[in-house]
Amino acid sequence: MQVCPVSCIPVNPQHVESRETLWQKYQRLQKAGQPLSAAGNPPASGT
Q1: Which Gene3D superfamilies match (predicted)?
Q2: pLDDT 10s digits, 7-37
Q3: CA angle at residue 32 from 20 to 38, to 5 degrees?
Q4: Cα(35)–Cα(29) distance, rounded to whole angstroms?
Q5: Which of 5, 10, 28, 47 could link 43 by a cystine bridge, Cβ 3.0 to 4.6 Å?
Q6: What DSSP letter does each residue of 1-47 carry, written as one string?
């Protein structure tokens, strides 16, 4: 699996999402696919 580096994602200053908002979005998107990790916690910063 290849992952796009964060630096290639364009930032829109008019649509800023907090880390918590992004985690909630990730969880919602994952419900239809693969199960979350056992802990169900967001990855630590810097990973």
Answers
A1: 3.30.70.20
A2: 777 888 898 888 899 899 889 888 867 655 5
A3: 60
A4: 10
A5: 47
A6: -----GGGSPP-TTS---HHHHHHHHHHHHTTSSPPPSS--PPPTT-
The whole model's pTM is what?
A: 0.44
Q: Give the distance from CA 36 to its chain's centroid.
A: 12
Q: How far apart are the first and last CA of the chain?
A: 16
- The torsion angles phi and psi of 12, rounded to 5 degrees, stand at -110, 105
Angle subtended at Cα 44 by Cα 10 and Cα 15, rounded to the nearest 5 degrees = 30
| Structural tokens at position 20 | 């918590």
